[in-house]
Design a protein that fits this description.
Shape: globular
Number of helices: 7
Strand order of the largest sheet: 1-2-3-4
Order of helices and strands: HEHEEEHHHHH
Radius of gyration: 18 Å
Helix content: 40-55%
Length: 208
């Protein structure tokens, strides 16, 4: 979602007041987020009750630079959720937002089209670097192996040099939906990507 921070905060407040019975605002998760997040980060946590197909899960909505996005959906107990479960929860949460957004034309909801390729945001060369990393990496360890790390860094550096507009949450969604990464590993990689891009941007702007 895109819009002014004030409008986005008001939307979160309105959503919290009209959640269905199987959703709730998770104050404890928000307190944990405040303890570990950077000082300027804003996060709003929601919890979804379990049903026959999906375990109890937590969803984090982050506000960053005039944009609200979902960087993380995780089971509240130990274990993992499948790609289909992850996507179902994301679509369900988006459906909760849509009626509120129709009343707020200053805000827009951006959903990644599953048919849109990664080249919507990065060059074909960068897309190939990401594909090569994904194919060769051990999905259980992400970027921790030295060879996997080198391929992952090559992709990040290329996107930085290109001035790519690839958002971390779009990258995470692409890793899950197109490249079939486990959601929790895709979340970790998207956070690594976000940190690395901000670090490279800061390095470029450093006058020393």
């Amino acid at each position: 979602m895109s819009g002014s921070p004030a409008n986005l905060r008001e939307l979160v407040s309105a959503l919290s007041d009209c959640l269905p019975a199987n959703w709730r605002r998770d104050a404890q998760a928000e307190e944990r987020f405040v303890q570990v997040a950077r000082k300027d980060a804003e996060g709003f946590a929601f919890a979804r009750a379990a049903d026959a197909n999906i375990p109890a899960t937590g969803l984090l909505l982050m506000l960053d630079d005039g944009r609200a996005h979902v960087p993380n959906i995780v089971p509240q107990q130990s274990g993992e959720i499948s790609i289909d479960q992850y996507n179902s929860i994301l679509v369900e949460f988006s459906d909760l937002l849509r009626p509120l957004l129709t009343q707020r034309p200053a805000l827009t909801l951006d959903m990644t089209d599953e048919q849109v390729g990664i080249t919507e945001w990065v060059s074909p060369d960068a897309a190939e670097l990401l594909r090569r990393f994904s194919v060769l990496a051990n999905m259980s360890t992400g970027s921790s192996h030295p060879s996997d790390f080198a391929r992952w860094v090559s992709f990040i550096i290329r996107t930085h040099k290109e001035g790519s507009k690839l958002y971390p949450d779009d990258l995470g969604q692409w890793l899950v939906e197109a490249l079939e990464w486990p959601p929790e590993k895709a979340d970790k990689l998207s956070l690594e990507y976000e940190f690395a891009i901000k670090l490279l941007d800061a390095y470029d702007q450093d006058p020393n």
